[in-house]
Amino acid sequence: MKKPTTPRKRASAKEADPQKVKKAFVLDTSVILYDHSAVEHFGEHDVAIPITVLEELDNFKKGNDIKNFEAREFIRFIDNLSNEHMLQTWLPLEGSNKGRFKVLMSHTAPVDAEKIFSDNKADHKILNATLALQQEMPDHKVVLVTKDINLRLKARALNLSAEDYETGKIQNVTNLYRGNDLVEDIPHPVITKLYDEGECPVEEALPNPPSDNHYFILRSTKSSALAYYNPEQRVLERVDKLTAVGIKPRNAEQTFALHAILHPEIKLVSIQGVAGTGKTLLALAGALEQRDTYNQIYLARPIVPLSNRDLGFLPGDANSKIGPYMEPLWDNLKFIQNQFTPHSKESNKIKEMVEEERLVITPLAYIRGRSLSNIIFIVDEAQNLTPHEVKTIISRAGQNTKIIFTGDIYQIDTPYLDSQSNGLSYLIDKAKNHKLYAHVTLQKGERSELANLANDLL
């Protein structure tokens, strides 16, 4: 359910709508691991969790991943909420216009999900707890809330209402902010002024002020220019094609992305695009070009193991376990090094940065808790992060830090996220039109003609 945008006063007995259906929401473990404060986002309605969820959270409370943090925070939350009260009774949630909370102890239901699905796993215990609550509260509409699609389907098969957790979810992802546009029929003097003076007043080219740090391909009947809206000066500035450590942009969108990465006043950048559009390569090249401005470059990515199994099942030490997941990042670094001869000054400088740990490629979990000051921090595959993870990363930024998120919102590798609920989509939607933020959408694949064939036809 969406969190209400404005609080509504609790209706009095005279004002109560007789047609209004009371609701009770049952949250499963996936919702808590996504957002530990989820129980507070259902307005005046009651919220419950099965005891099985607490049992599952106990398995997640140790560790450094965000899911471990969420589990610990939720356990602390209900500990404070219950205080000296019993959790199996309804407890009022703090705050105006809030419902009640309790832990569901009973798994006895008229329909036994464990027998129907021939398995006593946790999901089926959660279904039974929801069915039992439905029988206990016939005057309420009982709804199971889960980010597990298969569990929602099982619930509906048992005639239970089931929904995804909607808080933080982007509703219209097809119209997600793109960060760059093509504008045609621009007066030719505007193009001329951009080339002659490097800038022009925004009102001479566009009828309405654009979003801060927005990029444009401007076309007149005679010529075209690449431009950027400077929110401080309130002018359109010409964007030139720059080169970073031997990497040259191959299209307008890549030019925009590299401009945002190199711009000293833009501290937060996101780059969205399908495989082969050059997201990670541009981010790394732009960071290396600024190696004298920042103390370190961190290139990190979240690890989503095969079948979501823990990395412990892989053989070898920690480096051996994470190596395969970091290999694509090393491939980009090698591609940049190959722009130079093996023993050239530029190639040796990159090797020195790796050896001196001024350039660090690491799993995202390994940098949590560190101070992010005087660094460029590149987060690859950001579509596999939750909104809370993205917020946590950005909130740790110190002085002289730049953060770059790259990813493809349609290529989700974790089962409880999608194009609407992942952290990259959330960032693009919430941060647009801020003077510290720029976003660019890359569309044209530049890896190879064969890669483009796969993206276009298969």
Ordered list of secondary-structure elements with their pairings:
Layout: E1 22-27, H1 29-34, E2 46-50, H2 51-58, H3 66-82, E3 91-92, E4 100-104, H4 113-116, H5 122-136, E5 140-145, H6 149-157, E6 161-163, E7 180-183, H7 188-197, E8 199-201, H8 202-205, E9 215-219, E10 224-230, E11 235-238, H9 252-262, E12 268-273, H10 279-289, E13 296-301, H11 318-337, H12 345-355, E14 359-363, E15 375-379, H13 387-395, E16 402-407, H14 423-431, E17 437-442, H15 449-457
Parallel strand pairs: 1-2, 1-5, 2-4, 5-6, 7-9, 12-16, 12-17, 13-14, 13-15, 15-16
Antiparallel strand pairs: 3-4, 8-11, 9-10, 10-11
Q: What features would you describe in this structure?
A:
- α9 (252-262) runs parallel beside α10.
- A six-stranded mixed sheet has the order 3-4-2-1-5-6.
- With 458 residues, the chain is α/β, with parallel strands linked by helices.
- The radius of gyration is 26 Å and the shape is elongated.
- It has two domains: 22-163, Rossmann fold, CATH 3.40.50.1010; 174-457, P-loop containing nucleotide triphosphate hydrolases (Rossmann fold, 3-Layer(aba) Sandwich), CATH 3.40.50.300.
- It is built from 15 helices and 17 strands.
- The two termini are 35 Å apart.
